[in-house]
């Protein structure tokens, strides 16, 4: 290699480090693939505000809902990998959609840089207080005695709540009828009103409702009991093993984001997760923080994609 080519190669190798040292020089766009006001949106805003002082730039939340998060994801997948575009990503993008859709305009595994995890929160099986079952075993006995006659609500086809119940049905060999809604709020409202008897609910929305007695929780989909509902058994304790069901969130960036920028974003994200404001918000939502490395977040997401792919295939669910 002659001197000119050597210097060019040296400059190219040094460019990402120089970029990271100067970054950020302008506001950062954080895409949330859901409407404003939901749990994902609120958490993203809380974490972004906690990251802002260390970064010295504002983080602007941009809501891009639609197509089971695919609209927002495609915008990020095709954005410049310069550290000024990141996004919230959850089960839908990282574990479900590659199995639910025949074709995606991007690969969840190959077309993003994984930055790190934000949170995970278990789903609980809840029933209307008048439902004739006070334990999970009583619920199963009733469902088996009335195959196909017990309806369950969800925020929509392919949602974590829908797929949690499909896994539950596979594990328990029960036949329940799905009633999809357009969002969590109307689904929860109809279960509270008694129009639909049951659903899996995430604790971000369900914890205060359960604690108030407006819905009865039968079991929690976590590996261990949770502090906010210590009397509530896990699905495994209640007799349904191998049925851990939870929603998770993390941060992605466009593919080929330079490693120094990934490392800086990951470091600031982990610091934010330990901040008092974020810790309190997660406690209010019944969430568990997911600090760690980009590699750990990627490994968890890919493991979830394999686990849920089997359930989606068994249930024959497609969204196109």
Classified in CATH, the superfamily of the largest domain is Bordetella uptake gene, domain 1
Helix/strand order: HEHEHEHEHEHEHEHEEHHEH
Identify the overall geometry.
Answer: globular
- How large a portion of the residues is in β-strands, by DSSP E? 15-25%
How many DSSP-defined strands?
A: 10
The appropriate CATH architecture of the largest domain is 3-Layer(aba) Sandwich
What count of domains describes the coordinates? 2
Quote the distance from N terminus to C terminus.
Answer: 53 Å
- The CATH topology label of the largest domain is D-Maltodextrin-Binding Protein, domain 2
What is the C-alpha radius of gyration, as a whole number of Å? Answer: 21 Å
CATH class of the largest domain: Alpha Beta
- Number of DSSP helices? 11
Poorly predicted runs of 5 or more residues: none
Pairing-aware structural class of the strands and helices?
Answer: alpha/beta
Whole-number mean pLDDT: 91
The level of helicity is: 40-55%
The biggest beta sheet is recorded as: 10 strands, mixed
Topology:
Layout: H1 3-22, E1 28-32, H2 39-55, E2 59-63, H3 70-77, E3 85-90, H4 91-100, E4 112-127, H5 136-145, E5 151-154, H6 160-172, E6 177-180, H7 184-193, E7 198-202, H8 203-212, E8 216-220, E9 246-254, H9 259-273, H10 276-285, E10 288-289, H11 294-315
Parallel strand pairs: 1-2, 1-3, 5-6, 5-7
Antiparallel strand pairs: 3-9, 4-7, 4-8, 4-9, 4-10
